[in-house]
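Schema walk-through. Below, the input block comes first and the output block second. Nothing else is stored per chain. Lengths vary across the set, and this one has 290 residues.
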Amino acid sequence: MTRLVKGGLIQCSNPINDEDRTVKEIQDAALEKHIPFIEDAGQEGVQILCLQEIFNGPYFCPSQDGRWYDAAEPIPGPTTEALTPYAQKYEMVLIIPLYERAMAGVYYNSAAIIDADGKYLGTYRKNHLPHTSGFWEKYFFKPGNLGYPVFDTAYAKVGLYICYDRHFPEGARLLGLNGAEIVFNPSATVAGLSQYLWKLEQPAHAVANGYFMGCLNRVGEEAPWNIGKFYGHSYFVDPRGQFLAEGSDDQDELVTAEMDLDMIEEVRRVWQFYRDRRPETYGDMTELLP
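--- output ---
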């Protein structure tokens, strides 16, 4: 029987860009703005829904303002608890990217995954952190320490990558080796230096590893940082590198696509990258080379 899975991505602008408002007020508004889109996804029959990187607020990493530490929360915690009923109501897997507080002073850029029955399946912590002008992520986050897990959800085996991770093919390959059928990459990316890579790297990961990808980027501009326009263009791509659906560059919207998971077997029988790998020759990759 054909294995069809309907995926969804919510790209959204941040509703409050006002430094005079509290972190909680800004987060509450962002969560509230997402609820109608989550409801729409459920009503449209989306089976796996992914929200954008640190969805419940702005991308605050252009600053080194310690007040944003207040945005961190435990996983599971209040936001996963608030959204779990929607997973249960619509029998929909939810991927919820959050600023995670593991303990006092230890924070991660993470994504929790809730299964279609409301069960918390686990968390992915972003492994690769940019640290340069406009992206001071190592001020806010510790690098991930959970590896590259794949979550066996009600509908598919799902892997997660977050934003800057997408520039590193090693983790993308490990997700495939760990059994991922769909890899989601929630991001916060502005127009400029890396924009031309947006439609190159992730289709390449999908082709090189024979899986589907759901690639998600927010929209709009965010004060007071004003580092540029988040350009959206969220999309789904199949194991042949073909685009299944694509969002606009400036609209809040739900992007959906139907994925035929049987294509994975079909493609991998043609392109035998897993059979023809030579891991015994790759040892130098794990050495401390320049």
